[in-house]
């Protein structure tokens, strides 16, 4: 029997192969950056998560958000504490619980760690404006679809937010969506993946939004 030629591979297979290569590049840059900073990629990920949230986080929240086990987070956090990059304080919302926050040195280390994936930002400069927006929209849809299957932790993204009103009636990347929380209009390039104002919409609303969004 003749073997399958590369041209006979299905498009979903090629998309997967492309994404795997991006994943390999991300992992290799993370290891490189981490080695230079005397950290592990997991420690860098925790620092950048704390930096991006700008509020103290409990260990359980970090584990859920980064899709890591509690044991892995606990071990990484102990090392970060020993290095003086994070500190535990009483959680402002629950005095019995502890929350983690960055120290001043931790903030500097987190800013450096957040630059490890900058090679992707540089690579995306090779795309035209329309291609970039289209790629971002596609990625948002892909992440939402993976979230629905439990392949990524729940994201604080517009597509699942009770405040999101997708553009209706207008087609194309310039279609204007609306956020009822921040009271702003924005096109696909403004869709959020991790937003502090996010509030989970019920599933019936999410299904309706997805239908409208797909038509815009
Ligand atoms: S609150 Fe944030 S996530 Fe929700 S619709 Fe507005 S911008 Fe999007």
UniProtKB/TrEMBL annotation:
SUPFAM superfamilies: Winged helix' DNA-binding domain. Residues 12-144 form the HTH marR-type domain. Pfam families: MarR. GO terms for molecular function: DNA binding; DNA-binding transcription factor activity. This is MarR family transcriptional regulator. Keywords: DNA-binding, Transcription, Transcription regulation. GO terms for biological process: response to stress. It comes from Pandoraea terrae. CDD domains: HTH_ARSR.
């Amino acid at each position: 029997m003749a073997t399958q030629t590369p041209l006979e591979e299905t498009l979903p297979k090629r998309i997967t192969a492309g994404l795997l290569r991006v994943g390999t590049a991300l992992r290799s840059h993370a290891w490189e950056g981490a080695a230079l900073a005397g950290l592990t990629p997991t420690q860098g990920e925790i620092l950048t998560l704390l930096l991006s949230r700008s509020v103290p986080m409990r260990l359980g929240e970090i584990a859920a958000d980064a899709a890591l086990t509690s044991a892995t987070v606990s071990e990484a956090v102990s090392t970060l504490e020993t290095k003086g990059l994070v500190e535990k304080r009483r959680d402002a919302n629950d005095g019995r619980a502890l929350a983690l926050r960055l120290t001043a040195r931790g903030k500097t280390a987190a800013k450096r760690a957040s630059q490890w994936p900058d090679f992707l930002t540089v690579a995306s400069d090779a795309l035209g404006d329309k291609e970039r927006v289209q790629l971002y929209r596609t990625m948002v849809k892909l992440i939402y679809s993976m979230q629905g299957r439990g392949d990524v932790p729940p994201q604080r993204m517009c597509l699942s937010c009770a405040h999101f009103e997708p553009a209706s009636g207008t087609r194309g990347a310039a279609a204007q969506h609306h956020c009822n929380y921040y009271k702003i209009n924005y096109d696909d390039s403004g869709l959020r993946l991790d937003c502090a104002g996010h509030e989970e919409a019920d599933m019936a609303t999410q299904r309706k939004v997805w239908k409208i969004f797909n038509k815009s």
